[in-house]
Amino acid sequence: MAVSNNKIFDEQEQGLWNCFVQEEGLSTVQSEQYKSYIDIMLAWNVRSNLTRITRLSDIVHYHLQDSIRVIRYAQFLPGQMICDIGSGAGFPGLALAIARPNMHYTLIEVNQKKVAVLRHVIALLQLHHVQVCDYDWRTFVRQTPVSVQWFVTRASLDMHELMRIFKPDSAYRSAQLIYWASDQWRMQREEEPFFIKKEAYTVGSACRWYVFFGTT
User: Fold this and answer.
1) Percent of all residues in the chain with a pLDDT value above 70, rounded to a whole number
2) Average pLDDT over all residues of the chain
3) Model pTM greater than 0.90?
4) Which of 51, 89, 102, 215 is the most exposed place for a label (fewest CB within 10 A)?
5) Dist. CA 118–CA 112, nearest whole Å
């Protein structure tokens, strides 16, 4: 059941999509934005290898819902900045930007093909509250003067690298980090001082964790 590029769903696809819209409380505008996002991603996927997930049911569960269900557990406030580390095809950052348009977003991605896709989606959907940064992670932490309240990442870097934001000399020490983890995740000793909480959630047939880290 692959998504068609002209957004025409068959009866089964439309039923799945309607359930997604209802479960996540999406507006008509948000629903159409997600459809356009999917169309662009799959069109570019042919030449850029953005994702192995191409069936509508899998995209809804393992990309979109996996990205935005975190809203139920995080106290995101209007005007805050969310920074997506290793955004790839835009998950979770770009998906969140559609779900919560009253916040600001920075998508960190070094792969230039993926950067091009992200910028294309942002321009087409007129997501003026989203920017792309093509710095590598260490350069971003050292040099980027951005006020960030939340970092999010779907296992793009190992935890040793992610913990850099909590070093005493880091400009982002007061931010929180949300890490998308499998149900097999186990906390390492170096992460313990920064652990806040973990929240279990289910998407499709997968059980996973949102793991929160910070210094407060």
Assistant:
1) 96
2) 91
3) yes
4) 102
5) 10
d(CA 102, CA 95): 13
Phi, psi of 108 (to 5 degrees): -90, 120
* pLDDT given for residue 7 in this prediction: 56
Q: Delineate the domains of the chain, giving CATH numbers in brackets.
A: 77-213 (3.40.50.150)
Whose tokens are 């995209």? That residue is: 59
Backbone angles phi, psi at 186, to 5 degrees: -130, 135
Q: Is 86 exposed, middle or buried (0-12, 13-18, 19+ CB in 10 A)?
A: buried
Q: Show Cβ contacts of residue 61 under 8 Å, excluding neighbours closer than 6 positions.
A: 203, 204, 206
